[in-house]
Amino acid sequence: MSLEIIPTENNIHLVEVAEDFAKSERIDRFLAHHFSDLSRSRIQTLIDEGYVTVNDVLCNNKKDLIKAGDLIQLITPVATPLDLIAQEIPLDILYEDEHLIVINKPAGLVVHPAAGHSDGTLVNALLAHCTELSGINGTQRPGIVHRLDKDTSGVMVVAKNDRAHQDLQKQIQSKTARREYLGIVRGVPKGESGVIDAAIARHPSDRKKMAVTDDGRKAITHWQIKERLGNYTLVKFDLETGRTHQIRVHSAYMGWAIAGDPVYGHPNKEVSQYLAGQALHAWRLTFTHPFSGELIENTAILPEGFEKLLVFLRRRK
Hints:
18 strands; five-stranded antiparallel sheet; Structural Genomics Hypothetical 15.5 Kd Protein In mrcA-pckA Intergenic Region, Chain A; Pseudouridine synthase; 2 domains
């Protein structure tokens, strides 16, 4: 016998690998084999989101090997069904046709419903605007090809059908779509440009955060100085990969966190008088139209608060 599944409550599964388990095996394969109702991709997502521990240590890598005697805890969070409703929330539309829509998302707007945000999201607004949205990401995230954090503003593309969704997602994964951000960091980067190549995974002790770790998923961010503002700096970021909170985590890792970032930085009055969260803006998105093959480039102007913060820092320096 290779394992014993110990019954628990509240969707917490304890798996004890028996002492006679004769081999090492990747944890995602092991769990997918023994939990037939969970796909391997679902297991990998649960690992990425911090729902798996081995011997009370958070598992950050699907490739980790398990061995005899290990005690694995797997949590399958309860999915709360949400009845999505169309809500007339204003949208700043940069481009639209029958296949896709590009919007400039304001800071403070959550992209899709989740715990604590059952309505008032971008998805609710899209449902009021569009008659059809792609269904690839499920009923709670219709049309959503990629996302922005709540307090990050800027360009997002949304798919109206599955073919457009698959093509756009493939462009992002293959890096043929270009995502450029502008951010104000608190600090003075050395040099004028560079590349941050540092793997990112769930924080080992705080499930709500991400962190640079040796065993995380590959993450690469290109950066270039646009303007030096005393002890602050305006930086352009290009994403080569798209990990959760990637720019925010990489900036903090380099010692110059995004200004106003409440999770990875140090919020202060200088920034909070203009912005409610981090000074990060998805400035430009370039991709090939899934149907026409046309190169589509959309730029979102800086939000008013971001512009005012820049003016303040320029005057002060």
